[in-house]
Amino acid sequence: MISITNLSLSYTRLGTTIEILSDINCRIELGRITAFIGKSGAGKTSLLRCVAGLTTEYAGSIIADGVDLRVIDSALRAQYTGFVFQQFHLFPHMTVIENCMHPAIYHGMQKERARRRALEMLEQVSLVEHATKHPQQLSGGQQQRVAIARALMLTPKVLLFDEPTSALDPESTHMLVTTCKQLVKQGVTIAFSSHDMQFISSLKDVVHLMSDGKIIDRYDVQQESSGEQVDSFLHNY
Amino acid sequence: MARLHVFALSGWVAVIMFESVTIARILLVAHAAGMTVLIAAIGLTIGLSGGVLCGILASKRLNIPIARRIIDAYVFVVQGVPLFVQLLLVYFGLPFLLGVSLESFTAGWITVGLNSIAYVTQIVRGGINTVSPGQWEASFVLGYSLPATIWYIILPQVGRAVLPSLMNEVISLVKETSILGGIGVLELTKVSRDLVSRTSAPFTWYILAAVVYLLITSVLSFVAKRIERSLEYDFHH
To answer: What's the CA gap between B56 and A146, in Å, rounded?
Structure first.
């Protein structure tokens, strides 16, 4: 489980302080799907970037298994969080399978084992037949599934998705929902930011509604009387 | 009749051109060409290694202000002072400052190398700055260290992007070695000039020098195209 406690983030520009996140307290529970929803500028992406270690100038703490994620190095952090970017950011000079294998080999996995595991991961996201292609030869949805396979190679405890459907067509979005459900069944923990209501409804488990850098409501599928504002947001947005 | 005149004229030109050509002189030119290639190769090695290092240190992403200022000042000086003046400064100035004697050959490759560093720095820095920040971030979340990110992720992409500019620099470097004759280095232009003064056949020796320079640069262009093709990864659907 990842505990986020009293998390605040602000920037000072031209003498003015801009508050991005304000006193966030929440948890990303293992084996569940945690969503951070809200309008653009609500702070969803900033929160995920803090969890992934891409932003570290925050106040408060992000703790996973008793470990403060801010102070550990990037190699150790990769065991806790995987990140799938909105624009995927695959490495264009590597083939699909190299994109998956290279990080694992870098972290000490034997080459043949890394190849087998990469093929397993690509099988899971139905992309084995594209293994020797370069990312530029794939569609947006396929690139995203490669990014998921690449992130899973290092078996992170939590897989973070930033606005996962913003670059996808409806068919790819549907495939992503299926993939996410499959991953959760296999024990992968997922957290994502989104303002795509259809996608959120499909993966509704734990939902945090964000506005102006704060979490203003929480919906939990396991708690009956929760998330009035979330429900209203989902209906009205 | 007219054909006979043209034939006679061509024969006369051939005699004028080649009467001064002997095997010993051709060997002299070949040795000078070797010297040109050798100095260019040493200069290129210094230029590439120093330039890549300085380009990385001066890039926006690393954001090391002191390194950037020093490198900017170096580039400013080297690009603003004629190469011949740099050569004279190294040949006469370094022995004066360090109290050691410097052979013209050594002064030659030092100058060409130091000069090349400035230009390669600019090319590499520009290349690094054009790599999307997402590539650095993707590498970070996959647990790569900063040196590993630069080596495995950034430089391969930069190499492909800047190869044409680097090739121009290499070709310029080969041609710039022609000024080293000014301090007595027995490179191609200097030897050609010496042969002209001995044989009074400027056309012959300067044409030969031009052909040899063209041969060297053609081989370099050919090699560059092969490298470029091997790095090709821009595909279209």
So the answer is: 29
> What ipTM did this prediction achieve?
0.91
Sign of CA dihedral A108, A111, A116, A119: positive
Give the separation between CA A69 and CA B47, rounded to whole angstroms. 41
Structure tokens belonging to residue A200: 């959120």
DSSP bridge pairs for A62: A4
Q: Residue A203: count other Cβ atoms within 10 Å of its Cβ.
A: 20
To probe the interface with B, which of A91, A130, A137, A161 has the most B CB atoms within 10 Å?
A91
* The overall pTM is greater than 0.90: no
CA distances from A188 to A27, A111, A185, A194, B142 (A): 15, 24, 7, 19, 17
The closest of A65, A160, A136, A146 to A99, measured between CA atoms, is A146
β-partners of residue A68 are A63
Cβ count within 10 A of residue B85: 10
User: Is A106 close to B140, i.e. CB distance below 8 A?
Assistant: no
Query: What pLDDT sits at residue B68?
Result: 95
Q: What is the pLDDT of residues A36-58, one digit of tens each?
A: 998 888 999 999 999 999 999 99
Give φ, ψ of A137 to 5 degrees: -90, 0
Q: How far apart are CA A150 and CA B121, in angstroms?
A: 33
Instruction: Report the alpha-carbon distance of residue B204 to residue B211 in Å, rounded.
Output: 11
Please state the length of chain B: 237
Task: Show the tokens assigned to B236.
Answer: 């279209």
| B141 in contact with A, Cβ within 8 Å | yes
Amino acid identity of A106?
Y
Q: Is B28 exposed, middle or buried (0-12, 13-18, 19+ CB in 10 A)?
A: middle
B142: contact with A, CB 8 A cutoff: yes
Selected for mutation to probe chain B from A89, A133, A137 (highest B CB count within 10 Å) is A89
- Tracing tokens 């951070």 back to the chain, one arrives at A36
β-pairing verdict for A2-13 and A67-68: unpaired
Residue with tokens 């969503």: A35
Instruction: Enter the tokens of residue B62.
Output: 């690393």
Cα gap B35→B178, rounded to integer Å: 11
Q: Which residues pair with A21 in a beta bridge?
A: A9
Span A184-213, pLDDT tens digits: 988 889 999 998 888 888 888 899 999 999
| Residue A171, min C-alpha distance to chain B (Å) | 19
Q: Which residue of A has its CA nearest to B159?
A: A93
Q: Which residues contact B192 (CB under 8 A, 6 or more apart)?
A: B29, B32, B205, B206, B208, B209
> What secondary structure letter does DSSP report for A213?
T
